[in-house]
Amino acid sequence: MKFNIDLNGKEYEVDVPSNLRLSQLLGMVMTRKSVKHNCGTGRCGYCLVLIDNTPIYSCLYPAYRAQGKKIITLEAILQKSEYSNIIKGFELANVDLCPNCAPARILLTYHQLEKNRELTGEMIENIIDTITCDCTDVSSLKEALYLAANFYKGDFD
Ligand code: FES
Ligand code: FES
Asked: Of 3.40.50.2000, 3.40.50.300, 3.40.1170.60, 3.10.20.30, which CATH number belongs to 2-73?
């Protein structure tokens, strides 16, 4: 099936099976390393991307439905100061996320902070609950997200 996809601000034409999931298209066919096709069932969250500015588990999303929509993956923000500010928060909290959950968690944190620079407790819980983490405890994640929000707002240098 042939269609166009708008990925990180660039238009691409792809030709893939109609049953391909968006996570497989982005991660395997288009080699965007930040997108993992892991559980494939909506449990882990490692495949999270933004579709028309809404966080979506892309493993549950048929690739062809991305036609006409704007897809954003972590690669789109890697060069931005917003990305560095989020990373500073994780560093200050001594949280070194592994490649499994890091891309989706950072992208979701960016998305939340773009909507609201004051991360509420509920938003922090949401960022934690939406993406499984097997290596870092919840209180460290909470602290890292709190610090990331402070760097984002410019409260710290
Ligand atoms: S790969 Fe999509 S939720 Fe696990
Ligand atoms: S740091 Fe490894 S899954 Fe979160």
From this structure: 3.10.20.30
Pairing of strands 2-7, 70-72: parallel
Ligand 1 site, residue 38, Cβ cutoff 6 A: yes
Mean pLDDT of 103-132: 96
Q: Which of 136, 138, 141, 142 best tests ligand 2's pocket when mutated (most atoms within 8 Å of CB)?
A: 136
Which band of pLDDT confidence, cut at 50, 70 and 90, is reported for residue 157? low
Atom of ligand 1 nearest to the CA of 58: 2
> Which of 111, 94, 97 is closest to 147 using CA atoms?
94
Tokens at 94, concatenated: 């001594």
Class of domain 81-153: mainly alpha
Closest CA to 54 of 98, 122, 15, 111: 111
Average pLDDT across the chain, whole number = 96
- The domain segmentation of the chain, as residue ranges, is 2-73, 81-153
CA 140 to chain centroid, in Å, comes to 19
Tokens of 103: 């891309």
